[in-house]
From TrEMBL:
Belongs to the carotenoid oxygenase family. This is Beta-carotene 15, 15-dioxygenase 2, like. Keywords: Iron, Metal-binding. It comes from Sinocyclocheilus rhinocerous. The lineage of its organism: Eukaryota, Metazoa, Chordata, Craniata, Vertebrata. GO terms for cellular component: mitochondrion. Binds 1 Fe(2+) ion per subunit.
């Protein structure tokens, strides 16, 4: 690939030369496909096609669509052949969820309908008025999180609905399949106000807003002896209720992560390990509202290493630090 695209939740991408870092042309998603905005985190399959999720605004509200493009070219900015493969209706069309990324395993994509909701009326008004979208999103801890699973080749949505208690997520790490199970790892939390209130005012404030915790008010399903999961390497469980499968996660860290303030912006060695079992991921530690350390996690034993000390900052990484 000669250029890397850098999109960020708009209908535009900007090509950047990865060697000189020179800014190249702008690419408009909407000229190839009826999409108003797409995520900044497309996926590539091993045949070189790119997959992304993008919104369209229509009579049925804001709806995310999965679309593959650029078959065989491994170029997220090549939208040739792009077509909508799958549309995922929101459980409440008036209140679609905010999403920032998604995961793709060998056979499936997972869309997370999280309880961070968009107020469509405010969204349209602010759009017309050209105002900031602050306060367009709200955190609804009384709602549950819904995982929609689609076949990435046919676009068909799996009928079973998977639920968990209220959580918010920006970045997911990876997903892979093992013996008819789908394992999905992500950075998430149980207080979505962190995202809703993530404004410059709050970043420069004392941090009170960001520390505010509203406990989840979701219905509770206790894990029981009838977990559907029978994998030796995880304590995650799933129980079947009359209508859905309810999921209980396993933390991918030990208490030593707390000294770094948690982590975000996870990266794996994507070329070799996306959609496959993997051992390491890298992320920023958040001892401050801005990332202040570089962490490496060995998922085999959940061993955490700090690779870059606080106070040291990277400007450009020319080669990935993956192993
Ligand atoms: Fe992101």
């Amino acid at each position: 690939m000669n250029f890397v695209p850098y999109p960020t939740e708009t209908k535009f991408m900007r090509r950047i030369d990865p060697v000189s870092l020179e800014t190249k042309e702008k690419v408009d998603w909407s000229k190839n496909i009826a999409i108003n905005a797409a995520t900044a985190h497309p996926h590539h399959d091993r045949e070189g096609a790119t997959y992304n999720l993008g919104n369209s605004y229509g009579r049925r509200g804001v709806m995310p669509h999965l679309f593959p493009a650029g078959e065989g070219k491994n170029d997220a900015a090549d939208l040739s052949g792009a077509e909508i493969l799958c549309s995922i209706p929101a459980s409440d069309p008036r209140k679609p969820s905010y999403y920032h990324s998604f995961v793709m395993s060998e056979n499936y994509i997972v869309f997370i309908e999280q309880p961070i909701k968009l107020d469509l009326l405010k969204f349209m008004l602010y759009r017309v008025a050209g105002k900031s979208f602050h306060k367009v999103m709200s955190w609804n801890p009384e709602l549950e999180t819904i995982f929609h699973v689609a076949d990435r080749r046919t676009g068909q949505l799996i009928k079973t609905k998977y639920y968990s208690s209220a959580m918010f997520t920006l970045h997911q790490l990876n997903a892979y399949e093992d013996n008819r199970y789908l394992i999905m790892d992500m950075c998430c939390g149980d207080d979505g106000n962190v995202i809703v209130d993530f404004t410059m005012e709050n970043l420069w404030a004392s941090g009170e807003e960001l520390d505010k915790v509203i406990p989840s008010q979701s219905k509770t399903y206790e894990p029981n002896d009838h977990s559907l999961i029978n994998l030796p390497y995880t304590t995650a469980t799933a129980v079947k209720t009359i209508t859905v499968v309810f999921l209980f996660h396993e933390d991918l860290y030990n208490d030593d992560l707390l000294q770094y303030g948690g982590l975000e912006f996870p990266q794996i060695n994507y070329t070799y390990y996306n959609a496959r079992p993997y051992r390491y991921f890298y992320a920023c530690g958040f001892g401050h509202v801005f990332g202040d350390s570089l962490l490496k996690m060995n998922l085999n034993g959940k061993k955490l290493k700090m690779s870059l000390r606080r106070g040291e900052f990277l400007s450009v990484i020319k080669a990935p630090l993956m192993s």
